[in-house]
Amino acid sequence: MAIERHYIINQHFMYMFGVRDRNAKVCTLVREFHRVFIVDRSPLEILEDSLRSIGFNLKGALDSSKIIIGNNMMCPVMLNHIHNICVFPDKSHKHEDTIWFNPCHILRTHSIKRKTHVEFRNRLILTIDSKLFSFNNKWKSAEQLSRITTENANNPVSYIIIEPPKKKSKRKSKNKTSA
Question: Mean pLDDT across the stretch 64-69?
């Protein structure tokens, strides 16, 4: 299997996940539509590199996703709104074995024995250890983020974030007067 030094996620990207090489270093197995290879970088480094290539960073992308989709612990990440590349994790991005999916290449999902079978547009099937309902919610959130971000890029909308007023704390006076 080919080993790449760097990788920028593109439209052919289907999914990726972390693997350890023989020296116990975290690398990434990447599956594109017509090829599979290993990248000598962790999945989070690949996400960071892909975002940096267009002038953004992972923290900012995650923060934006939380604002647009809602405060979700496993938020999708919009990598490139021009090419409509969005990815979402099957579990927390802090786990080494998290699988990152591109929703554009997913054709359908179904459940077998409490696991999810993900069928891609090229007819490849990947079985993951996740409940169907949970996986489908993440997939739907990623598609929603992709749609909202792409539409907003074409039709700019102003967002106004209104925070509730802070409550004033009532302090009791401790000054005692003596007579």
Answer: 88
